[in-house]
Amino acid sequence: MKEIPVILFGAGGVGQALLQLIVNGRSRVAERNQCRFNIVAIIDSKTWVWQPEGLTDAQLHDIIAAKKHHLPVDPAWRQEKLRDQKRPSDTEILEIAHQAGLKQAIVVDVTAANGMEPVIDQALELGYGVALANKKPLAGPWQTAQKYFNHPLIRHESTVGGGQPVIATLRYLLDVNDPILEIEGQLSGTLGYICARLDEGVPFSQAVAAAKALGYTEPDPRDDLGGKDVMRKIMILGRMAGWPLEETDIEVESLYPSALAHLSVTEFMAATIALDPPMRERVETAVSQGNVLRYIAHLEKGHGKVGLQPIPAQSPLANLKYISFRTACYNDEPLLIGGKGAGVEMTAAGVLGDMIDLVRETR
Ligand SMILES: NC(=O)c1ccc[n+]([C@@H]2O[C@H](COP(=O)([O-])OP(=O)(O)OC[C@H]3O[C@@H](n4cnc5c(N)ncnc54)[C@H](OP(=O)(O)O)[C@@H]3O)[C@@H](O)[C@H]2O)c1
Question: Which domain holds residue 205?
Fold first, then answer.
């Protein structure tokens, strides 16, 4: 049985779900894949826990429970000890792991943090595998991000499609040399929810407020409404497909005007009422032509567009979180992946699948 040390950056919704999956599935994963994931470090934004021989399942349960209450991972911090001691930086943590003799470890980035590139670079230098749900390192400037694409020690299934096998499918198409001609999809569960409420005649401001109240949006809904997260997803797929895309190659329609960018979240939520009449007009125009509005990402010939589009109300795609690939082989009928694809459990399952794949890669 191969013991795989795991260094986990991020213990939010996805990180907690991943820990739970690892603990719950220990025997089955071990039996099927002949490996056991040994969580040696968990890092959140302020604290960390480190146990080179691996945290016990009881300790992992304790950490999951603490993070559910938005408490730091470090028990000493929670017991009011060591509160003024700063944790080592993310890269120092990898150095500590290296000094402790950890070999063939897997570094998991399930943060939403900017600036994780030095951590990834260092992990790769140490020969560690890297599994990402964090899109940002793959969606930075091409010059920096290029080296992460098709790297044998990097997996990132959960960056697009929330656990649906989108990256694996694209990788397969590329492996068999089926050129990608066009990529399209509804890539945001949050915006899909808001569009479905608009179909029902709910004003935009109320649809956004409902999505926020249900926890579907980021704490600041502008992070979803601005379209940048969707842009990052289509950029990752396009870059995999062979287009060296930069942000300027993808037009993004934000669902709020830049004049509302500097408001507090509360002010912004109040200001969304002013967006109701123009949005109602767009919805009514779409409906009068037998359409519904959906937030679609589209990429062809190295140029992308992300924004609201009318699509036929009767189309099976109207209510499906899907991604389609038109390729040389799948030309007249694109290859379609569709399904639930949202939520922390499925995202975590995608990360766990990546970790297992990395173990196979290094065998
Ligand atoms: N939620 C989904 O359904 C979903 C689907 C697909 C992809 N993703 C992606 O998965 C990632 C995680 O999502 P999430 O919903 O779990 O986010 P989240 O709940 O906001 O959790 C982020 C975690 O990262 C920690 N963190 C922030 N900066 C860090 C740093 N520099 N080093 C170490 N830890 C750091 C945070 O610490 P604190 O706990 O101290 O704040 C928190 O534990 C994101 O990139 C997201 O885009 C999420």
Answer: 180-338
245 and 260 share a domain? yes
Q: Using the 8-state DSSP alphabet, how is residue 221 labeled?
A: T
Among all chains, which residue has been given the structure tokens 């120092």? 92
Asked whether the beta carbons of 170 and 237 are under 8 A apart, the reply is: yes
Which amino acid would we find at residue 250? I
What is the 109 CA–ligand 1 centroid distance (Å)? 8
Q: Are residues 195 and 241 in the same domain?
A: yes
Predicted TM-score of the model (pTM): 0.95
CB contact at 8 A, 98 and 50: no
Q: What is the DSSP string of 260-285?
A: GTTS-HHHHHHHGGGGHHHHHHHHHH
Question: Which tens digits make up the pLDDT trace of 37-51?
Answer: 999 999 999 999 999
Q: Are residues 127 and 273 in the same domain?
A: no
User: Which residues neighbour 258 within 8 Å (Cβ) at sequence distance 6 or greater?
Assistant: none
Active site residues: 233
Which pLDDT score, from 0 to 100, does residue 81 have? 64
- What token pair was written down for 129? 């595998």
Q: Answer yes or no: is the C-beta of 11 below 6 A from any ligand 1 atom.
A: yes
Residue tagged 């999956």 (tokens): 21
Look up residue 315 and give its DSSP letter: S
Q: Are residues 202 and 297 in the same domain?
A: yes
If one counts the domains in the chain, the total is 2
pLDDT band at 218 (very low <50, low <70, confident <90, very high): confident
Q: Is 1 a residue whose pLDDT tops 90?
A: no
Which is nearest to 40 in space by CA: 102, 129, 117?
102
- 16 CA → ligand 1 middle, Å: 10
- Mutation choice for ligand 1 from 44, 119, 217, CB with most ligand atoms inside 8 A: 44
Tell how far the Cα of 153 is from the centroid of ligand 1, in angstroms: 21
CA dihedral for 311, 314, 316, 318, sign (positive or negative): positive
Q: Is residue 284 part of a domain?
A: yes
